[in-house]
Amino acid sequence: MRRSRRSTRIATAGLLLGIAILFAFPLYYLVVTSLKTKAELFAAVPSLVPQALNLAPYSSVLFGRGFTGLLVNSVIVGLSATVLAVLVAFAICYPITRLPASRRLRGFVLNWAMSLRFLPPIAVVIPYFAIIRTIGLYNELPALILVYTIFNLPLAIWMLRGFLDEIPLELEQAALVDGASRWQAFRSVLLPLSRTAILAVVIIVFAFDWAEFLFAFILTATPQAQTFPVGVQGLVTQFEIIWNDMAAGGVIAIIIPLTLMLIARRHVMTGLTFGVIREK
Amino acid sequence: MNVAPSRSMTVGARVAMRTGWSRRTRQERLVYKLLLPVFGTVFVLATIPFVMAVIEALTAGSRGFVGFDNFATALSNPLLFESIKQTALYAAIALPVEILGGLGVALLVHRVVRSAALRAAIYVLAMIPIVIPQIAVGVVFRLVYQPDYGILNVLLGRTGADQLLWLSSPPLAMIATASVDIWQWTPFVYLVLFAGLQTVPSESVEAAQVDGASSWMQFRHIELPYLRPLLLLVLFFRLADVVRVFDHVYVLTGGGPGTTTQYLSLYIYRIGFQFSDLSQASALAVVVMAAMTIFYTIISRFLPADRG
Amino acid sequence: MRLGKWTPLLAGVALIASACSNTGAPGGGATTLTIAAVQGVEDAGLKALAPMYKTAKGVTLNIVELPYDNLYSKLVSTFQANDSTYDLAMMDDPWMPKFGTDGSLSDLGALGISRDSDIADVVWDVGTWPPPRGPVPPSEKAKPKQLLGVTIVGNVEMFMYRKDITPTAPASYDDVLANAKAQKAAGLTGYIIRGKATNPVVADFLPILWSQGGDVFDENWNVVLDNAASKAAINFLVNDLKATAQSDPGSTDAADRDKIMANGQGYQSSVWPGEINTAVLDPAVTKVKDKVAFIPIPKGTSGKGVGMMGNWMLGIPKASKNQQAAADFIKWMLQADTQKTYAQNNGIPSRTSVLKDGSLAAANPYFPVLAEALQAPPNWRPRTDQWNAVETIIGTELNKALTGGETGDEAATAAAAAIRTLMKSKGYPTQ
C-alpha cells in the first residue's frame, strides 16, 4: 500500500516534469533564437545553444526599431483595459450573484456575455473601425482601451461569477444584520474575500489584452497608438523573416508582464495564495 | 460552515427565503438599479458593431439591400464546407488535449504541490504562452517544424528516425498547427480551472476523505460540480477561439498543403480581403455566431452552469 | 443611490472619449507627410531619403511601416472609410486595379507629374488606370486613363544560378531542367521552388507559365489556365522541377529559399531584387559571394523568357489633405540625383540612367539586368480588381499539386473552373 503510494507520487512527479519540459522547450528555443546572429540562423544545421550571448536583437527591437514607445502603449492599454474590464465585470456580477436577481435575468446576462465571444472578430473589426473613426478615437489609445474592455467582459464576467457564487451569502448577511450598510458589507466582507478571484481574472485578462493584434492593427495608423504586437508583426516581411529580432520581441513580450507581477509581488502572493476563500 | 444545503437553489431564491417578500422586492429593484447603468452601456456598445455586421451581411456595396443573397453565396461554396471540416478536425485534436490536459495539470498541482509560493509561481508562469505575440509563436514553431532547417527534424535525424514533412503532408500539417494551439492554450485552461478548484470548500473535501472516498470520487462528486461553470467557460472559449486561429497557421503553412489548414478564420479573411467581399465575410461570421449559439444552448443543457 | 457609485466610471470613459476626439489631420501648409510603407528592404531607400527631404524642403516624412499582407488590408480599410491619415501609400502593382476600380487614388497627372523618357514606358503603364494595354475590366472601359501610381521600387522577377558550377547561363527552361537534374544528382537542390500556398507559389510560377506559352486569361478575359500550354507549364513545375527540388517545396517561402541559396545548398531559382542584398548576397551570411549570377527569366517553349513585374508604387489617396505636398515629394524623389542617393541606400531605382550607372553596379550587380528586364518589357499580373482572389485560387491548387494532393492537370482544371465562376459572377465576359 505504502509502496504503491510512493510509486504513484514518483510517477506523478515524473509526469509533471515531462509536461514541464514539453512546455518549456519552445520557450527555450525562443530565447536561443533571440540570442543567435543572422549568420548562425542561416547555418544549414541549427544548433540548440547559441554560440555567444548576442544581445544585438534586443537592442535592435527596443532602440533600433523604436519599439519602446509601442511597449509603453501596450502597458497603458493593457493596464487600463484590464482595470476597466474587471470593474465593469464586477459591477455586473455583483447584482446577479449577491442579490436576488431572477434566474431569467441572470441567464440573460451570462448568455449574452458568452455570445459576445462567438462572433468572429473579422466581422466586427470593420464596424468597430467605422465607429471609432466616427467618435474621433482612430489612432488613439482610448479606442483600444474601450474595445479591449468590451472584448474581455465575457471572460471576466464568467470567471468572477464562478468565484462570487462560491462566497457564502451568509457572510454578508451577518454583516448586514450587525447593522452595516450594503456598501460597508461589500467593502469589508465581499471585497477581501474576492481578492483571489479578482487577481486571477486580472492576470488572464491582462494576458489577453497584451497579445491582441487584430484590433490594435485596424484601429491604429501610426506608432503613436500602435502596440507591441503590431510592431512585432512587421518583423515578418514579404521576403524575409527577421528570426532573431522576432524572437527577442517574443522574449520582451514575456518579460514585461512578469516584471509587472514582480513589482506587485506582495499583492500577487497574497492574492494568489489560493484557498483563502474557504479557509476564512 | 456548511453551505451545502442551499446549493440546490438559485441565489435569488435563497435570499428570498431568508428575507421575506417586502425585502425581496426592494432588493430586486436594487438589482436593476445596479445592473442597468453599467450593463446597459456595455450592452449597447457591444451590440452596435454586431448590428452593423448584420446589416453588412444583408447588403452588397452599391446594390444595397440584397436579403439573404450573401448567405446563399457563402453557403454555396464547397470550400466553406471543406474549411468547416478541417476546423472541426483541428478542434477535435486540440480541444480534448487542452481541456483534459489543463484539468489534469490543475488537479495534479492542486493535490501535489503544497507550497503556496510554488503554486503562485506556476500560476504566473502559465501566463507566458498567452502573452507572446501570435506571430512570434508561429515563427518559433516554424523554426521547430520546418523540414529542412527545423530543430525537430534535426533531432529526429540524430536518433536515426525518418525526417518528416511536418508542414506539407496533410495529417502532419494539421497536427503541427494543432500542437501550437495546444502548447499555447492548455495553460489558459489550467489558469481558469486551477483558480476554480480553490473555491471548493476544504470542509467538503475533508469530509469525503474521512468517508474514504477515492481520488476519482472526490473529483467526480465534489470538485467537478464546482468546476462546471468554468468548464463551460473554457470549452466555449476554446471553441470560439478555434474560429479565430490565424497567425501561427499563416506563418507555418499559409493554409496549405492545398486547403488542409485553411481553417475558418483564414477562409473568412480570404473572402473578406483577398476576394474583397466583406459582405459575404460578414454573412459567414453571422452564420458562425448562430451555429455557435445553437451549439452552446444545447451543450449548456447538458452541462448546466447553475447547479440544480 | 448606488447609481452614483458608477457615475464617475462612465463619466471617465466619456471624458477620455471627448478629450481625445480632436484627431486633427495636419493642416494646409503641410509640414508632415504620413506615408504608409511596406516593411522590409523595399522601403529601405525611402527611409534613407526622409532626413534629406527634411533638410531640403523642411517637410517631415512620417513613414509608417506595415508588413505586406497587413499593408494591403490596412489600405483597403482606410480607403473604404475615406480616412485622411495617409498622404502617400506604397502599393504593390497587382493592388492597383483594386484601388483604381474603387477610385481611391488621385490623378497624379493633374498634380503635375508626367512621363519621363529616362524611365521605361512599362513603369508608367503599370501605374496607369485603366490599363493602357491588355484586357480592361468591363466596368472600367469608359473611364479616362489616369496616372495613379509612380514606381519607387523597380522590381522585376529575375533568375539566379550558381555561375561557379556552370559558367554558362541557362538559355532556356530545358537547360534549367537539365542543370537541375545534374545538380540534384551531385547533391545540391537542383531548383529551389518557392511553393508556399497562395501568393508565394504563384509568384514563382507565373514567369514559368508565361515563358512556356501559357497564361491565366486571354485578351477577352477567357480563362486559358487549363489549355495545353498552361497545363504543360503546371506539370513542368509540379513534376519535373519538383523532382529536383528541396525536401519540402510546399512550405517554402522566400526566406527559406534564400537560406538554401545563401548556404550554398541550392543551385538555381527565381529571385526578386529585394531578396538579393538582404539574404542571398548579404556579407554576414552568404557562402556564395561572387558565385551567383542574376539573369533575366530564361526562354521557355514560347521562345521568350517573360519576367514578372512586382513594382512598388507610390500613390496619393484621394482623402489626403496634402495632395500637392505629396505630389511634390514624388517629383523630388524621381529626380536623377535623388534616385542615385536612393540607390546607394538600398533603394531599387527605376531610372534607366541610374540603373546603368557604372558606379552603382559594383554594389548592385543586378542593376543592368533589371534595366534590361524593364525594357523587355516584363509581364504584369492581369489588371483586374479580382486578381487577389484569382491568385488565391491558383496558389491553393498549385500548392495542393506540389504536395501530392492532386495532379498538375487536376490543379489546372480545378483552378480554371473556380476562376471562371468567380469572373462571371463579377460581370466579366469570361468563357
Description:
- The complex is a heterotrimer of chains A (280), B (308) and C (431).
- Chain A has two domains: 1-54; 60-279, MetI-like (MetI-like fold).
- Helices cover 75% and strands 0% of the residues of chain A.
- Chain A is built from 16 helices and no strands.
- Chain B has 14 helices and no strands.
- Chain B has two domains: 1-58; 68-302, Orthogonal Bundle (MetI-like fold), CATH 1.10.3720.
- The model of chain B is unreliable at 1-10 (pLDDT under 50).
- Chain B has helices at 11-19, 21-58, 69-75, 78-112, 116-125, 128-131, 134-145, 151-158, 170-197, 202-210, 215-242, 247-252, 264-274, 278-302.
- Chain B has 308 residues and is an all-alpha fold.
- By secondary structure, chain C is of the alpha+beta class.
- Chain C folds into two domains: 32-153 and 310-375, D-Maltodextrin-Binding Protein, domain 2, CATH 3.40.190; 158-308 and 383-425, Periplasmic binding protein-like II (D-Maltodextrin-Binding Protein, domain 2, 3-Layer(aba) Sandwich), CATH 3.40.190.
- Chain C is built from 17 helices and ten strands.
- Chain C has helices at 3-19, 44-57, 68-80, 96-102, 121-126, 173-185, 199-211, 228-241, 254-262, 273-280, 323-334, 336-344, 352-355, 358-361, 367-375, 387-402, 408-425; strands spanning 32-38, 60-66, 88-92, 128-129, 146-147, 150-153, 158-162, 268-271, 292-295, 312-315.
- In chain C, the strands form three sheets. In chain C, strands 2-1-3-10-6 form a five-stranded mixed β-sheet. A three-stranded antiparallel β-sheet of chain C has the order 8-7-9. Chain C has a two-stranded antiparallel sheet with strand order 4-5.
- In chain C, helix 2 (44-57) packs across helix 12 and helix 16 packs antiparallel against helix 17 (408-425).
- Residues 1-28 of chain C have low confidence and may be disordered.
- Chains in contact: A-B, A-C, B-C.
- At the A-B interface, helix 1, helix 4, helix 5, helix 6 and helix 7 of A face helix 1, helix 2, helix 4, helix 5 and helix 6 of B.
